[in-house]
Structures are given as C-alpha cells and as structure tokens.
Design a protein that fits this description.
This protein has 286 residues and is of the alpha+beta class. Helix content is 16%, strand content 52%.
C-alpha cells in the first residue's frame, strides 16, 4: 500500500499541476514577448493533505526552483531551457516521514535521495508557442527499464518526467485576450487521454501592466497503471480556484496562488477505495 500511495501522490501532484497550465487561447490573445538570453526564476511550492482510505493519511510539502532561460526564438515560438536547481520534499504517511533537501543532501545515499538528485541541474530544452502559451519538450526523455519495479519513487518520477519541465515553462505564462474589460470572463479546455480540464478566467483588475485574474477549473481524470504486476485505476475530480497576476504586455506571470479539492477512488484488486485531498500552491516568477 505504501508503494501505491507514492504513485497516487505523484498522480495527485501531476493532475493538480496540469489543471493550472495554460491551454490554447483565442487568436486575439496577442503574443508572449521575451528576449533571447532572458532569464526567469520559477519558484513553486505545493502542500497536499490526503486521505487514502483505510486510515491511511498522507501529508506532503514540496518546493522547487527552476531556472528558465530563453535560448532562441522564431516568429512562432521560443526555445527555453529549464533547469531544476533546488528541490525540497517532506512527506509523512502512516506515521513515517521522508525528507529530502537538495541544498543539504549533497551526497545522496538512499534510493529516494538518488531518484530526486538525478533530476537536479540537468538543462532541458522546451519549445513554447508564443501565441497559445503551450509548451512541449524538444526531445522526449527516455525511461529506464526496471526503474519502476526496483524503486517506487523512480516510477513516480518517471510518470511525470516527460511533462514536468514543459509544465514549469507553460505555467510561467498567461495571456489575456485583447479587448477584455474588468469582470469579463473567458474559458479554455485541455484534453488528453487521461484527463479533461475546463478553466474559466475572470479579469478582476488591471493596475499598470499587471492584470489580476480569477481562475476556476474542473478536471476529470482516469489513470490506469500497472505497477510491479499490480494493476489499479485512479479516477478523480479536481475543483480548483486561484488568483494569477500576469503582465498584460509580455504574458509573463508574476505570481500565482491556487487551492484545490480532489475527490476520487482507487480501484485495486476489485475493490474501490475513496481518496480525498486538499492541495494548495504558490508560485512566483522573477
């Protein structure tokens, strides 16, 4: 159950992150404005309080810092390098605690420490579309065979290795459609094989170049996994609310605060177990 809970923690974190990401915007949104060589520090923190059923409580606090640098640009997109430079994770499950701090654990010894350390200080190129705000890895990362069987944390990290860096990049930008006035709203939808997210934005205020947006999002997801020969399915509904401050001229987000309620079930060996979680996050981009 502990290994399964680690995977579910990854799914909860990933679902929450994806629910906030920019989707395709209306054609009158303008363009994200960046300069070659421009650098942005993306600092994010996520807190999770989850009930996994059967008395299994899980609490997690994580903070990350990514350095983003604009390498090249075309008339349609930017190539941005994302480098994870700091990572701190604290989670408690069934009374047992696990901690990792990249600034303190400079010589990793345990499997968990090694798994986290492998992600640090490795530049990843991401292609950012300057009109839609969507991002994709320039080159997909290869998954190592056997990792998920040997180490549940490796399986957790691999589940999101192909989306984490592009999620960080796309999460740093939010375009406001042209012609919007205070109290105006607009929506977008993102669909993947595993989930569908509908987001509604409301323009709350504009001060100088800073626009404050209210975000309301609903994500429905179904994740089927085969872990160490054990199949299970996690179905969930995530309702998120948040506030975003973005530069209306450049599209770069300055700060983002979001809270979410997740309700779902884990189907394991023919049994359904309820899962509930409360997630909160803060992000700054400088």
């Amino acid at each position: 159950m502990k290994k399964t809970s680690l995977i579910i923690l990854g799914i909860i974190t990933g679902t929450f992150a994806i629910s906030q990401n920019a989707a395709v915007k209306p054609i009158n949104s303008g363009k994200i404005q960046l300069k070659n060589g421009q650098k942005i520090i993306a600092a994010n923190s996520i807190t999770i309080e989850a009930d996994m059923g059967m008395g299994m409580q899980l609490n997690s606090n994580s903070t990350t810092e990514n350095n983003l640098e604009v390498k090249t640009s075309t008339d349609k997109d930017y190539t941005i390098t994302s480098t994870l430079t700091k990572l701190k994770v604290d989670f408690t499950m069934a009374g047992q605690s696990t901690n990792y701090d990249s600034e303190k654990n400079t010589t990793p010894t345990s499997d968990i420490e090694k798994t986290f350390a492998e992600r640090l200080n490795k530049p990843v190129d991401v292609i950012l579309n300057n009109t839609t705000g969507t991002a994709a890895l320039k080159e997909k990362k290869e998954k190592k065979e056997g990792d998920e069987n040997d180490n549940p944390m490796a399986g957790l990290m691999n589940s999101f290795a192909e989306s984490s860096d592009d999620a960080v990049v796309s999460g740093a930008f939010e375009l406001v459609p042209a012609g919007k006035n205070i109290s105006d709203s607009w929506s977008d939808t993102t669909k993947t094989k595993e989930m569908t997210t509908i987001r509604t934005y409301t323009l709350k205020s504009v001060t100088g170049n800073d626009a404050v947006l209210q975000l309301d999002a609903v994500t429905t997801a179904s994740n089927k996994l085969d872990f160490q020969g054990m199949e299970f399915e996690f179905k969930s509904t995530t309702k998120s609310t948040g506030e975003i401050t973005t530069d209306i001229n450049t599209g770069q987000i300055k700060s983002k605060n979001t809270k979410a309620d997740i309700n779902g079930t884990i189907q394991l060996m023919g049994q359904d177990m309820p899962v509930t979680a409360k997630v909160s996050s803060t992000g700054t981009y400088k």
